Amino acid sequence: MAIDAESSTLEADPVKLRSIVDNLIGNAVKFTPAGGSVSVLARASGDQALIDVIDSGPGVPAEERDSIFDSFFRGRARSSARVEGSGLGLAIAREFVEAHGGRISVLAEARGGHFRVALPRRVAA
User: Fold this and answer.
1) How far apart are CA 57 and CA 80, in angstroms?
2) Separation of alpha carbons 52 and 64, rounded Å
3) Residue 27 burial (CB < 10 Å; 0-12/13-18/19+)?
4) Residue 70, pLDDT above cutoff 80
5) Which tens digits make up the pLDDT trace of 79-91?
6) In sequence order, which ranges of 1-80 are alpha helices (DSSP H)?
7) What is the CB neighbour count within 10 angstroms for residue 68?
8) Taking Cα atoms as reference points, which of 120, 75, 90, 102 lies closest to residue 20?
């Protein structure tokens, strides 16, 4: 796993923020085959803090991108983990991101999964 993070100030509930990141990284690890890679990038971009989680797994098919954040949705991709998920992790992540005034999305990639969280950044006075 590779992590590339810039220092930035962000007003957020630390428990909810950790849950968002844990869910995204957990999914990336679960769907990435042995020998694959997972990268986490965090940076400031204008008035937003961006967190990207990118993996070398099968990715999210175009027809599932609108449903991937719905409760209990489980896509057709097979995880490399022994334990299947409940279909709640990404729905919870979306709820927590939106509670912070942000947005979460899955980006179209040629290969692999790429999730992006954009949260409003407030600079401490």
Assistant:
1) 9
2) 19
3) buried
4) yes
5) 555 556 667 889 9
6) 14-31
7) 21
8) 90
